[in-house]
């Protein structure tokens, strides 16, 4: 983490108190701001990040206790130190119960004051360090990108060369090809890996919600906005903002987003104040953005802003060399986490994996492997543990697409009904209007095995 001066906000309605505290702490090496009351303090807090707030309890308008509650609602990590006269020490004790870090009693003992603030900063920093350490150890260390095909080697080279820069990256590819994985790698290997990686799924939210998700909102900006809320752009400060499914953003939000990316400033919904933001941008989409531009649903200027460096993830069917290495990677991973000892795919199962077109790409492959492992009783994965793939593969190769015989259709239909009944032969036979023995005979005829 970069060493920076701790940021301190001093809130007091009396000018001379603000001035003397400010002078004292500036001398001590703090980055100090001041506010003359609760409201002003919240405004300042909305613009800048602080480590510690020192606030007087008794102030006209919003008092220190109320200010503390507001701060805790939106930024619980800030340490708050309350200042009180002798008369109201009991109030300060109450405040401690509500989560204030400590309190100081007027008139101040400068040495004590310095010690308390210093310890508060240490605590805040320790917590920050813990969080980022934890993130680095568990959560945010991205998974390995597996791939030996030339296409994936090229992708890995591109990731290697762009990650250490600050460049904006646009990742394209079908669903399940690994766009998010690549985005996480770029963040983790970039200069902002110590900062957060904040992801927004732009396709999942209605326009109004997305807007407040991205830009945040001021308290009272709409019904239900009971407190100030920072948006993802603000939360990504110092790190990477991952805009997933950027092709789904509505034209109005596109305008706001473009402005934010260009000016590196945002205005929260319902607000007027500009807030500076600083992050790297990585976007992903499986939409044809050029087509969307022609249709008029995607802004060309935004497209140029995000399309600085492109990484295209090819669909799995175009890089069959990657299928087995990825399948084996997931087999190892899932077997380990399930405590199972299944180490390989049988040659027939490998064949199937290679023949299947994987419309859901790597995600589908991962799911198929996980499912196979759950139902597998042997020491290796057999074709019967990959039933859906086995069936579609037989359909794709010599199936009904070119074979329109009644037999082929019967084969497909029986498979489908069996799948729907999860291979419960009694149920399937009933749906098909035949008896179980007949169904068993047909299954034998078409070599349909129960998983
Ligand atoms: N090359 C790869 N090596 C290992 N795991 C991979 C690879 N590609 C993708 N995965 C894994 O496959 C799953 C799907 O990948 P990811 O979520 O990154 O896809 P996506 O392109 O973002 O899909 P969508 O467009 O549907 O959001 C994840 O679990 C990811 O870790
Ligand atoms: Mg994704």
Overview of the molecule:
The chain has 451 residues and is an alpha/beta fold. It folds into three domains: 7-137, 3-Layer(aba) Sandwich (Rossmann fold), CATH 3.40.50; 150-314, 3-Layer(aba) Sandwich (Rossmann fold), CATH 3.40.50; 318-445, Helicase, Ruva Protein, domain 3 (Orthogonal Bundle), CATH 1.10.8. The chain is 48% helix and 15% strand. The chain is built from 19 helices and 16 strands. The strands form five sheets. The protein has a five-stranded parallel beta sheet with strand order 2-1-3-4-5, sandwiched between helices. It has a five-stranded parallel beta sheet with strand order 7-10-13-6-14. Strand 1, helix 1 and strand 2 (31-35) form a beta-alpha-beta unit. Helix 2 packs parallel to helix 3, helix 17 packs across helix 18 (425-432) and helix 18 (425-432) packs across helix 19 (436-445). It is elongated and about 95 Å long. It starts with 6 loop residues before the first strand and ends in a 6-residue tail after the last helix. 33% of the residues are buried. The protein binds adenosine-5'-triphosphate and magnesium ion. Adenosine-5'-triphosphate (ATP) binds at residues 143, 145-147, 173, 175-181, 286, 326, 329, 362-363, 366.
């Amino acid at each position: 983490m970069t060493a920076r001066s701790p940021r301190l906000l001093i809130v007091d309605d009396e000018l001379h108190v603000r001035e003397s505290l400010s002078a004292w702490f500036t001398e001590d090496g703090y980055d100090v701001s001041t506010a003359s009351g609760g409201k002003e303090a919240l405004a300042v807090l909305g613009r800048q990040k602080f480590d510690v707030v020192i606030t007087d309890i008794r102030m006209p308008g919003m008092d220190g206790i109320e200010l503390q509650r507001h701060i805790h609602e939106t930024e619980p990590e800030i340490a708050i130190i309350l200042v009180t006269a002798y008369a109201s020490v009991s109030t300060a004790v109450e405040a401690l119960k509500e989560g204030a870090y400590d309190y100081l009693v007027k008139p101040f003992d400068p040495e004590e004051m310095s010690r308390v603030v210093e310890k508060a900063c240490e605590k805040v920093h320790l917590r920050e360090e813990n969080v980022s350490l934890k993130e680095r150890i568990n959560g945010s260390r991205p998974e390995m990108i597996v791939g030996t095909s030339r296409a994936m080697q090229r992708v890995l080279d591109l990731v290697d060369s762009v990650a250490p820069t600050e460049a904006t990256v646009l990742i394209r590819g079908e669903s399940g090809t690994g766009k998010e994985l690549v985005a996480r790698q770029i963040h983790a290997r970039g200069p902002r890996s110590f900062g957060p990686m904040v992801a927004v799924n732009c396709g999942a939210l209605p326009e109004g919600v997305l807007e407040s998700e991205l830009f945040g909102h001021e308290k009272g900006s709409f019904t239900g906005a009971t407190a100030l809320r920072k948006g993802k752009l603000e939360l990504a400060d110092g790190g990477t903002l991952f805009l997933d499914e950027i092709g789904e953003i509505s034209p109005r939000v596109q305008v706001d987003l473009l402005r934010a990316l260009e000016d590196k400033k945002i205005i929260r919904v319902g607000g007027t104040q500009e807030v500076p933001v600083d992050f790297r941008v990585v976007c992903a989409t499986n939409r044809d953005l050029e087509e969307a531009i022609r249709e008029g649903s995607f802004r060309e200027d935004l497209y140029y802003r995000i399309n600085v460096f492109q990484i295209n993830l090819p669909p799995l069917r175009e890089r069959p060399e990657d299928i087995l290495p990825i399948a084996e990677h997931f087999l190892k991973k899932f077997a380990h986490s399930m405590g199972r000892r299944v180490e390989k795919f049988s040659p027939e199962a490998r064949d199937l994996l290679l023949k299947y077109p994987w419309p859901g790409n790597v995600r589908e492959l991962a799911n198929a492997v996980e499912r196979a492992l759950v139902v597998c009783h042997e020491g290796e994965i057999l074709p019967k543990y990959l039933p859906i793939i086995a069936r579609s593969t037989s359909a794709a190769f010599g199936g009904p697409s070119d074979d329109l015989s009644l037999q082929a259709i019967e084969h497909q239909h029986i498979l489908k009904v069996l799948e729907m009944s999860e291979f419960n032969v009694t149920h399937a036979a009933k749906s098909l209007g035949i008896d179980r023995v007949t169904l068993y005979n047909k299954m034998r005829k078409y070599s349909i095995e129960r998983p």
